[in-house]
What we know:
With 246 residues, the chain is an alpha+beta fold. Helix content is 44%, strand content 24%.
Amino acid sequence: MADLFQEQVTEEEFEQEQRRRHVLDTRLAVAVRCITRSGRRADYIDAVNSHLQRLTRIPLPVQCDVDTAQAFRDASREEIMLNGVCFIGDHRTEAFVAAVKRIVSRHVEQPESYLEVTDRIMRGCSRTLSGSDSYFALHQLFADPDILIKPRSTKVIPLSVTLGLDFSDHRFRCRIKSTNLYGLYRNEDIEALLRSSEQHMEPFVAIDTVVVEQMDLTTDKSHRYLSIKFPPSPPTKLELEIDELF
Length: 246
């Protein structure tokens, strides 16, 4: 139970990341924080919905600071889908890398470029990278002494990679989609949980983040962006009954 709510990064690492990363426009972050200062769940929802257009496509730095070794460590913990095929089992990482190499070899002729492209794709798949960007964006928006931001204990959504020739313009492209699920947890709720016999607690506010990188491997250009939204709500009993009537 104790490690359920432990900090995700050390204070020193956090300060270094804060200095290095500027994920959001400061004015956007201030506008959201002004709405949520009341601490009411309804205001958190209103804050995101009020700025939904800007929060669903936040530009991110293209520079990838993750090294190859870290990328492979991340991949070993992932479920990955490549062109709609899910890689599972103990050797899924090796199978995924082999599949990427086969596709790259069909579209990249120079041996040195072949290795560079494969390595760039692997590093782009790193959840260390997407997780860092999404976490620090949420911190800019919702950081509060009474709130803990942490991943939800929901099953991790597989990484989705689309790799191949774009027949619309005959360019070799890669699209990487990484979904990270977070929750905002109130300290008072955490303390109440620790005093109870319960083992699980729903977040005060659940938030989904999606990082998408689009690589044009023909021209060696990339774009990355972040989307922040609420998870889909299950239908209410009334909505289900209406569906049955019509």
